[in-house]
# Entry
Amino acid sequence: MKVFLTGGGTLGSVSPLIGIYQKLKEKDNNLVTFFIGTKSGPEKEFVKQYCVKYESIVSTKYRRYSSLKSFLIPGLLFISFWQSLFLLIKHKPDWIIGAGSFVQVPLIWASKFFKTKVVLYQSDLKKGLANKLNEKQADLIFVTFPESKKYFKNLNKVQVVGTVLRSEINEVNNNEENILLVLGGGTGATSINNLIKESICELTKDFKVIHVTGQGKKLDFKHDNYEQYEILLDDYYEKLNQAKLIISRAGLSSIMELSYLAKNSILIPLPRSSQVDNAKYICFKKGAVCLEQDELNSNKLIKAVKRNINLGNEFNKIFKHQGEIIIADTIYEFKRN
# Structure
């Protein structure tokens, strides 16, 4: 079987795709896989770890608001559509699996001229624009939240699978330490970085602080009991599992990992994005503490960190788990039928 995985721009759509790939590979040693991503996103280096062949196409964000950049969309879409046709003719995949990134849109549109089957994975609570544009062509649709089913028209195609994670998350030891881990998402969060810098003297009184700043966003200061990294790769899950408390954006990849590991968490969603809905859902279910970035300052952050947060077990119960197994099994069952 030959598969295209497609996602990128950030790592939010990439991590669950790798989790699905790992389970497909367990079922078929002859699986041939290509990852179709962006030219400059962080996914290329990330995918290299898994020895998956990488191809890139032009990608652009489809904005729902007025922007001068919107005038470039037709031309970029034309280029990416023809690039997609070329890749489909060249490799002839049996399946395309997309996780809601804009890079998937022209690729799936172009696949209409072939016999390629399409899988969509919707991680966020509400249906994203990319999946909305590709929904009609989907043969299988998988969602994280039960509440997400209502956003899709053909419910017969939709299955709730819960968290979709890479296999490495099961390979770390349960050795929790007095660590505060700060995650700003796949590309880093300048606002969170600045808050940590302002708060570091107080935070390090109670915790060893490990701070993931994002690529190119490393802070120009040092402090006792403080470590910073632009990105974590091989030891990401080890650091995640060691932490007693985690401050994180509310992208679904991060939320699924924190839930699976039952971590005590403070979520700071990216304002005016799908992360706000994700965070509200988790906090309504009493799985984490949520702070709004626009109203947040150093004192509020320190106060939240010093609370005795004990919500990890409730966080774990919010989702079904091991959705990557369900997706791989369903694809192979669909193939046989």
Q: What stands out?
A: The CA atoms of residues 123 and 318 lie 14 Å apart. The mean pLDDT is 91. The chain is about 35% helix and 15% strand. The two ends are 15 Å apart (CA to CA).
